[in-house]
Amino acid sequence: MPLLSAAAVVSFFVSVSLSNGHHEFQSTACRYTLLPWTHFAVAYGGLAAAVMSVAVHLLMFRSARHAGQNPNCGWQSTVSTIFFIIACLMILLTAGMVVVAHMDASQSAANIGKPICEG
Hints:
The chain is mostly helical. The protein contains 3 helices and no strands.
């Protein structure tokens, strides 16, 4: 689960970087360009990692309770809870990046080849 949470965090920052890079490229080229598929792969990959991290946490929590254990005691539960909270936050942030990727793609596709710069 920590690896999935970390993957979601890394994917979010890579997705933001790719989006900023695409906007800078379009500004430099002074024209709209299509959004590369990597933007979608990173955004959806981060979202999938965050959702899987939350699902694993909930399944492990439920499994421990079903086995008669107390999943709320000990340092492991604290670490697990921290990664769960991070993953929940990353679901929101990476879902936002998925929306941004689709908005960028639709704007670029609608204006493909048109100039951005004036003059």
